[in-house]
Design goal:
By secondary structure, this protein is an alpha/beta fold. 53% of the residues lie in helices and 16% in strands.
């Protein structure tokens, strides 16, 4: 009996010892399983992720491949369509890693963890290249205060010349009545003819030096006025065209601005109390800008710059300074054990030149 009791006690002791070590072994086994093949969620965002069928390329893809090589793991890529889906997949444990162009914010840090930043980005504005003014633009220019001033000056000069003509011609020219109002009216017609057509009328064959001098002065004044009017119209068109440009955040109110739903760009525009046109992907905003359905796009600077230099070259332009500094990071589930090794791998890539080579491949040398 005593032998049976001793045997049972011995078995219990062995079981307790195994129980103490079993969780650790199990955890190591699971960690090793994750390290062998990681589920990496990403989304289309040129030039960070470009999907060509089943083949993925882009800056973020190349960077993660280098990180995975450092970690000695395989990658199973999972594609989603938006940053919201990407973050949800990481938060819910459907993916081990999320990478594309994910801005690191305090709000997002509450639901996921981020690695060290791997890209210094910021919000910028993109507009279309300006075209010629429309009919409505021209009507607005014709009724601008500047042109009213020029026309007022021309009318004043015309009245002065008409009075001179009336004073000179009222006694010797039957075409000019001696009465003031009828005489001024007829003289205005003469003055307008001289100013517009440079025809001297009754002065053409006169031998009187004063009348010839008057005719020459009138012609010179008319040339100056026409030149001034032309210059004013040109200047007004130029100013109008320049004012139509969006130079920065101060020019956004009253404009139609597009951005991507759920991004820092949308949050920025909401902070300015602007009702933005929100799309699911940045690729959906480009046609809106080209078609004139929106006046500008606010989004991450490297994405806009890449599009403006490639597919949108000549049709769009990135304008103004950086609206808001922000950084991209790799998203991980909260408390993920991968955070430290990924950070170490990123630092190693930055030190050995791999990061710089990858950056120059997609963005050129800075």
């Amino acid at each position: 009996m005593k032998r049976h009791v001793l045997a049972i006690l011995l078995l219990l002791a062995c079981a307790l010892a195994a129980a103490r070590t079993a969780p650790t072994v199990g955890a190591e086994t699971r960690t090793q399983g994750q390290a062998e093949t990681l589920r990496v969620v990403t989304m289309p965002l040129e030039p960070f992720m470009i999907a060509d069928g089943d083949r993925l390329t882009g800056f973020s893809v190349d960077l993660w491949d280098a990180v995975a090589k450092q970690l000695g793991v395989q990658s199973q890529w999972v594609q989603v369509e938006s940053v919201e889906e990407l973050l949800a997949a990481v938060q819910n444990g459907q993916a081990d890693v999320g990478i594309a162009g994910i801005s690191m914010t305090a709000e997002r840090e509450q639901s996921v963890d981020f690695t060290l930043p791997f890209f210094n980005a910021g919000l910028r504005i993109m507009t279309s290249t300006r075209s010629s003014p429309t009919v409505f633009n021209l009507i607005g220019i014709l009724f601008s205060p500047t042109l009213f001033k020029v026309l007022g000056l021309g009318l004043l000069v015309l009245l002065v010349i008409a009075h001179i003509i009336w004073l000179v011609e009222r006694g010797s020219n039957e075409a000019i009545p001696k009465a003031y109002l009828p005489g001024i009216w007829e003289s205005l017609w003469w003055a307008l003819a001289i100013l517009s057509t440079h025809e001297y009328g009754a002065f053409e064959h006169t031998r009187a030096r004063f009348k010839r001098l008057l005719a020459m002065v009138t012609v010179v004044i008319s040339i100056i006025l026409i030149a001034q009017f032309t210059a004013s119209v040109t200047a007004s068109l130029t100013v109008h065209q320049l004012s139509g440009y969006i130079h920065g955040a101060a020019d956004l109110p009253g404009k139609r601005v597009a951005t991507v739903r759920g991004t820092t760009g949308a949050a920025y525009l909401a902070g300015l109390h602007l009702n933005a046109v929100e799309v699911e992907q940045i690729e959906d905003a480009y046609p809106l800008l080209k078609a004139g359905q929106v006046d500008a796009i606010v989004f991450d600077a490297p994405v806009l710059l890449y599009y403006a230099a490639t597919e949108g070259k000549g049709a769009v332009q990135v304008v103004g300074p950086t609206l808001k500094d922000e950084y991209y990071g790799i998203a991980l589930p909260t408390g993920s054990p991968l955070r430290k090794p990924i950070n170490e791998a990123l630092l190693e890539l930055m030190q050995d030149g791999t990061y710089a080579e990858t950056h120059d491949k997609w963005f050129g040398k800075s």
